[in-house]
Write a structure and sequence with these properties.
The protein is mainly β. The protein has two domains: 121 residues; 304 residues, Methylamine Dehydrogenase, Chain H (7 Propeller). Strand 27 and strand 28 form a beta hairpin. Helix 2 crosses helix 5. It is globular, with a radius of gyration of 21 Å.
Length: 441
């Protein structure tokens, strides 16, 4: 969706490309930026929106939405418009380039987008990247323990266990292959599913037995996993992957029992209803698919979102499903065996909604937004209860405590903080300093 850009802002952008006597090098300056921020979703083998950024010629050619590079004119180039947020969703999802990094790409385009290496040579993927590039490790997911005393925080190759009242580190679960993107606690609270995997290569779920600290690993998908959910009986989990599929797994055997292949784009979220009647999946193709929770049999689709659907959550003890995504709207759907329909919506946020959850009593809905804000509203009428103002960093995750008095939120700069809903006061800092990760590994 193209946003309206005020003339004064546009004028400022046109003057924002810094002058330099040294031309920008594609191989030394542009390639590392693309490898660290773009190639995971825009590799030639599975190019999102038809755009590949791992070769020079593919980058120049563009994708389904048009030419990526307008040579000599950075402000008309789609890559710049998505990086600076003039087009939504702002890229990369789950991260952001610094202004100085965007300026380097602008300079390169202004200078003619020239190639200083063989055009047939691929842009290295993250794994192949020789030079080390530091990137902020976002907090993509959080989950509370059943007693509300601990919070599990997703990180880079690790899940940290934090005291919910003090923020102190209690322990950690290590051994993940890459960034952990989604967490889900088993219905009995004894096993933590931590999902992620290597972007563009494979998905991974580690099932952690929390009492012993031991784990088993489930491997599958051809790309990273962005969502994981437990069936309420604890016998199966469902995963959502960037490879455009969702899968259902037997927890005891670690084997995939059903593959759900109806989406035409990346699948970001998955959720079960509390009675296991319904399994919902959400995708960048703007749709929500409803499946039988016990069998994985396809039932029907829900349409209405104008952009990618990023998050799902069922109301406890109900067939009401909430969804939210890049079109800035949280929607409620009532599901039936023969179909479902939208019953309400809330468009109170100014930017894409990246996560949402409901309180255990179903009275509150919480959303985390790309503009850094977190909203808490009443489920029955959408009235605002509390708003955390926006910030320069994206709010990626939000979860409410079991007693409904606190919530924890995580941002793209590595911060995760616990707040009191009643007055918005800060209770504890879980991860306060941005964690640097080496994306070259």
């Amino acid at each position: 969706m193209i946003s309206v850009l005020p003339i004064l802002i546009l004028a400022g952008c046109l003057q924002s490309v810094p002058k330099s006597t040294t031309p920008v090098s594609f191989s030394k300056q542009i390639v590392p930026l693309l490898a660290a921020n773009c190639n995971a979703c825009h590799a030639s083998n599975t190019p999102q929106s038809g755009l590949a950024t791992d070769t020079y010629m593919a980058l120049i050619r563009g994708g389904k939405r048009g030419k990526c590079i307008e040579i000599g004119n950075p402000n008309k180039s789609l890559i710049i418009q998505y990086l600076d947020g003039r087009r939504q969703p702002k890229m990369p999802i789950g991260g952001a380039l610094k202004d100085v990094e965007i300026d380097v790409i602008k300079r390169w385009i202004s200078e003619g987008a020239k190639l200083d290496t063989d055009s047939k040579q691929p842009v290295p993927t993250t794994k192949e990247l020789k030079s080390k590039v530091s990137a902020l490790c976002p907090v993509n997911s959080l989950v509370w323990s059943r007693d509300g005393k601990r919070i599990y925080v997703a990180g880079y190759k690790v899940v940290e266990i934090r005291d919910a009242n003090t923020g102190n580190k209690i322990g950690q679960l290590v051994g993940h292959s890459d960034i952990v993107r989604s967490l889900a606690l088993s219905p009995d609270g004894k096993v933590l599913a931590a999902a992620g995997g290597k972007v563009g290569k494979s998905g991974e779920v580690k099932l952690w037995i929390l009492e012993s600290g031991t784990s088993t690993t489930i491997e599958g998908h051809t790309d990273s996993i962005y969502g994981v959910a437990w069936r309420p009986d604890g016998l199966q989990i469902a995963t959502a992957s960037y490879d455009k599929t969702a899968k259902i797994w037997d927890v005891k055997t670690g084997k995939s029992v059903v593959e759900l292949r109806d989406h035409t784009d990346a699948v970001f979220a998955v959720a079960y209803s509390s009675d296991s009647k319904y399994l919902a999946t959400a995708s960048a193709d703007k749709s929500i698919k409803i499946w039988e929770g016990m069998t994985g049999k396809r039932m029907y689709s829900l349409s209405g979102a104008q952009e990618a659907v990023m998050s799902l959550a069922f109301m406890p003890k109900s067939s009401r499903l909430y969804s939210a995504g890049a079109d800035k709207v949280a929607r409620a759907w009532d599901l039936r065996p023969d179909g479902g329909g939208q019953v309400k919506s809330n468009s109170g946020q100014a930017d894409a909604i990246l996560d949402l959850c409901l309180s255990e009593d179903g009275t509150m809905v919480l959303t985390a937004s790309m503009d850094g804000s977190v909203h808490v509203v009443k489920e029955n009428d959408g009235a605002s209860i509390k708003i955390l103002p926006g910030s320069p960093e994206m709010a990626l995750s939000v979860k409410i405590s079991p007693n409904g008095e606190l919530f924890a939120a995580g941002w793209s700069d590595g911060r995760s903080v616990v707040f009191r809903i009643k007055d918005g006061t800060q209770v504890a800092v879980l991860t306060g300093n941005p964690t640097k990760v080496d994306v070259a590994k």
